[in-house]
């Protein structure tokens, strides 16, 4: 493929031969012919997608470089060369679009800033509340403590608790409600 030829009017098999020549011998003449034939077509295709002539030109150049680098991956038995070329162009456009749509990393984003350490008075309140809850739990019968532990600390659903304890689901719900009533009363006594 060392003669200066044009691909105009070439069959799909001929175009595939140019890509194979690029892959096997890094044939610049074949690449130039491919570039002359497909460069404008790829640019027009990308212009429809981007609606930006400079972006279409840049993406076309990137596509042609990808064709040069990936020519060894082309398999004429799997499809037409033009479909392979335009698939590369489409994938490059998708990658560029994704990069453009991805927000830039902002280190000052409040979602990324760790929560402030609690103040000393808040830590004391938390410890006192925890101690009061622990003392209130000691006033409950063990069966009710077990139900509260399963429901709120283990985050088990009422149906799971019923299956584990062998109790009807209605009984589980009423015993948890009763345990909360007793806990509320016990906590008010500790205040």
Automatic annotation (TrEMBL):
At the top level of its lineage, which domain of life is listed?
A: Bacteria
Q: Which UniProt keywords apply?
A: DNA-binding, Sigma factor, Transcription, Transcription regulation
InterPro entries found in the cross-reference section: RNA_pol_sigma-70-like, RNA_pol_sigma-70_dom, RNA_pol_sigma70_r2, RNA_pol_sigma70_r4, RNA_pol_sigma_r2, RNA_pol_sigma_r3/r4-like, WH-like_DNA-bd_sf
Which GO molecular function annotations are given, in alphabetical order? Answer: DNA binding; sigma factor activity
Instruction: List the Pfam families.
Output: Sigma70_r2 (PF04542), Sigma70_r4 (PF04545)
What is one process in the GO biological process aspect for this record? DNA-templated transcription initiation
Domain RNA polymerase sigma-70 region stretches: 34-102, 136-184
Recorded family membership: Belongs to the sigma-70 factor family. ECF subfamily.
The protein's name in its UniProt record: RNA polymerase sigma-70 factor, ECF subfamily
Q: Which organism is it from?
A: Devosia lucknowensis
């Amino acid at each position: 493929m060392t003669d200066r030829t044009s691909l105009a009017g070439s069959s799909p098999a001929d175009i595939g031969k140019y890509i194979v020549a690029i892959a096997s011998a890094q044939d610049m003449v074949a690449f130039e012919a491919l570039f002359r034939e497909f460069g404008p077509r790829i640019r027009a295709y990308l212009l429809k997608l981007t609606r930006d002539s400079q972006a279409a030109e840049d993406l076309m150049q990137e596509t042609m470089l990808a064709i040069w680098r990936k020519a060894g991956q082309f398999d004429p038995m799997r499809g037409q060369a033009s479909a392979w070329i335009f698939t590369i162009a489409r994938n490059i456009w998708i990658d560029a679009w994704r990069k453009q749509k991805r927000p830039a990393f902002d280190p000052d984003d409040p979602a990324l800033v760790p929560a402030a350490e609690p103040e000393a008075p808040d830590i004391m309140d938390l410890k006192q509340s925890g101690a009061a809850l622990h003392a209130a739990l000691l006033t409950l019968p063990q069966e009710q403590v077990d139900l509260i532990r399963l429901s709120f600390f283990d985050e088990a659903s009422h149906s799971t608790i019923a299956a584990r304890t062998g109790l009807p689901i209605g009984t589980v719900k009423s015993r948890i409600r009763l345990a909360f009533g007793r806990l509320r009363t016990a906590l008010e006594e500790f205040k």
